[in-house]
Design a protein that fits this description.
169 residues, mainly alpha, Leucine-rich Repeat Variant, 10 helices, globular
Length: 169
């Protein structure tokens, strides 16, 4: 009769899909109303401006507002939803890089930042890894997300979006 070794006593890790589940706190409709109450009007207006310099200034103002004590307790999912509504289609690399800096700030300092907030942005940033001007800020933000959530989660979210593409080339 063979003796049961340490391998026999250890349990297998849970399947990746089970450990990487999450649930959004807000529906998109619910988030819209809460964002209007949460984010200062001047930031909302300037972030929607056609001029890239106004959008960049809005992100700088948002960063200052968050760093002045708001970031610790703010509902990060609402801020991320606000940023990605217009930021996902941003064409200016300076504005996008600043946006990723705000996302890093939320990931590092917000007590409410987690998988739902990260999931709203990962696919967008994975796509930007192919952009010469944005691969560093996008990659750095993804690393912070992996540290806050898990590498498995970030890779899973990024790969899930890539699987939908017809071609990887």
């Amino acid at each position: 009769m063979p003796a049961a070794g340490p391998a026999a006593k250890s349990k297998a890790p849970p399947p990746a899909a089970a450990s990487d589940t999450f649930k959004f706190k807000h529906t998109p409709e619910d988030a819209e109303g809460r964002i209007a109450e949460l984010i200062p009007d001047s930031i909302q207006a300037d972030f929607g401006d056609a001029n890239w310099k106004a959008r960049l200034a809005a992100l700088e103002e948002l960063t200052t507002w968050l760093e002045d004590g708001v970031v610790d307790d703010i509902d990060s999912e609402l801020v991320v939803r606000f940023l990605m509504k217009k930021g996902a289609s941003e064409k200016n690399f300076q504005v996008s890089a600043k946006l990723y800096g705000v996302l890093q700030l939320l990931a590092e300092r917000s007590s409410t930042f987690g998988r739902p907030s990260a999931a709203l942005t990962i696919a967008h940033m994975v796509e930007k890894l192919g952009d010469m001007k944005l691969k560093k800020p996008a990659g750095d933000t993804l690393i912070v997300f992996a540290e806050k959530t898990s590498l498995n989660f970030v890779l899973g979210q990024g790969a899930a979006d890539q699987r939908r593409l017809a071609s990887w080339t």
